[in-house]
């Protein structure tokens, strides 16, 4: 059985457009940035890869989740990243402390996008 393949760029552009309207309060969020960037970083961490193409299935799946705001989405994925790193032993402390740490972010968020 064949399945339709959608280029990752189209998926990412669609998700960014969907969340752009809720970015107004972003400066007060503990997880500033674009939701698609947090999703990409979470998926690449989860799949243990730095290749967004390899993580595209996860990115597409997680991108369908609904949140009340961009901040809520970002915070959800930041918390999941924190939990994963604490479980793996690559980060100390609690998930709550990690989420509050403004320096904690993935490479995609830190670079302002893929390949940035």
Concise summary:
This protein is an all-alpha fold. It has helices at 8-20, 35-46, 56-63, 70-88, 95-100, 107-111.
Task: Give an overview in words.
There is one protein chain. This protein is mostly helical and 116 residues long. It has one domain (8-23, 31-106). Helix content is 54%, strand content 0%. It contains 6 helices and no strands. The chain has helices spanning 8-20, 35-46, 56-63, 70-88, 95-100, 107-111. It is globular and about 40 Å long. The N and C termini lie far apart (37 Å). Residues 21-26 have low confidence and may be disordered.
Features:
116 residues
Report how far apart the termini are: 37 Å
Shape: globular
Give the biggest sheet. Answer: none
**Estimated radius of gyration:** 14 Å
Write the layout of secondary structure elements.
Blueprint lengths: L7 H13 L14 H12 L9 H8 L6 H19 L6 H6 L6 H5 L5
Helix pairs in contact: 1-3, 2-3, 2-4
